[in-house]
Each structure stands twice: as structure tokens, then as C-alpha cells.
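lol ok so funny story. i was supposed to be doing the assay writeup but got distracted and ended up predicting the structure for this chain instead. priorities right. anyway since i did it might as well share w the group, maybe its usefull for someone
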Amino acid sequence: MAENAQAPRDPRALAGFIDHTILKAEASRAEVARHCDEALAHGFASVCVNAVHAAFVAGRLAGSPVKTCVVIGFPLGAGGAAAKAAEAALAIAAGAQEIDMVLDIGALIEGDLARCRSDLAAVRAATTGTVLKVILETCLLTDAQKEAACRLSREIGADFVKTSTGFSTGGATVADIALMRRVVGPAMGVKASGGVRDAATAWAMIDAGATRIGASASLAIVGGAAPATAGY
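and the output, tada:
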């Protein structure tokens, strides 16, 4: 090995960074249960699901350190602030410990930062005491818009900014993670999601500033096996 070469890193060390994710519309309760059991076995940070599964996941993970994470306003972010706030409150009542919300992408792109901020603030008010991650959908944004979204998320007291839903035209990039980390500073979380499908990519995101990884290929990431199919 060359003197300056980095020693290989154990992919199993990535488990605590991962939100083990199943957000497809056709997800069965059996698949969701399997994701919970995989998260418990590997020590993933959370299981991330649609709200219909919140109570089931919270029950299955009860007493464990694995969190129940629920997406809100997903995947378009266009349901309106009041609807998102209500959805978030219902998810928390059902057992969600973390909320991943899609911001008002259209307002951001239009430059209506007041509307975008109101959207974020409504959900933050409904999630007091609960971890809130703001999904930017970076593939649709310019760098200036990404920076604005990060600033707004920081101002309203979000806990994380997150790259992507995994349902649009692209996912996480190292460049976007570095940009987001630069804007939010060291205190906020940064989540890389969308297209993170192996350990090398996960480590690259972490090296760029990510503190959480959203993935459906979680087992491949921590085990080194090739993922079976494309996905989140």
C-alpha cells in the first residue's frame, strides 16, 4: 500500500448514519416489517416510511434506539403549509420521532421566500421537540436557490437539511452536500438521500459533510453486496 493511501473503512460503521427507507407506493406491511427488523439487526438510525405506516413502525421499534421517521408533503411539497403541519402533527401522534418534510419548491423557485419560510415555519411549529429535516429537492434548484433554502431552514430552527426525495430527476451529490454544509454551518445536520447505493458513495457524502444517509439500499451499503434494484 502506498504510504499516503487511506486504509479501507468498514462499511458496517455506516449503519448509525442510515435512515433505512421504504417509501414506494406499493410497499406492503410485510415489507415495512422487514425493514424494521433489518434496522434493529444492523443498528440503523431510523426507519423512514410514509405516514400510513407510522403507528405500525413505532410499535415494532418500541424500546429500541432505532427511530421512527415519517415523510410529510411527500414527494412534491405542494400540499400547502396548513396541510403539512396537520400531517406532521398526526404523524407525531402516531409515534413519529423524526419528520422529513418537502419544502414548497415552487415558492422557492419563484423567489417567494416569504411563502417558503411560512411553509417551513408552520411545520416547525407543529413539530416542536421532534427532529425536523427539510427536503430541498436539490436536482430542481440552482445553487443560489439551494443556499436560500438552507438559510431559511436554519432560520426557522430545522434540525437537518436534506438533498432529495428520491422521486425526482436526481439525487444527492457530493457538491450539493458540501454546499449545504457550508451554508448551514457545523451545528445542523445534513442528510444525503437519493442514489446513495454503496459504501464508497456513503463515505464520500459523509466526508463532504453529511451526518445522515437516506437509503433503500442500506443492506448493500453496510454489507458490501450489490443492491438488487434501483431505488431511493
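Confidence is low (pLDDT under 50) at residues 1-5. Strands lie at 18-22, 46-49, 67-72, 98-102, 131-135, 160-162, 189-193, 212-215.
back to the writeup now i swear
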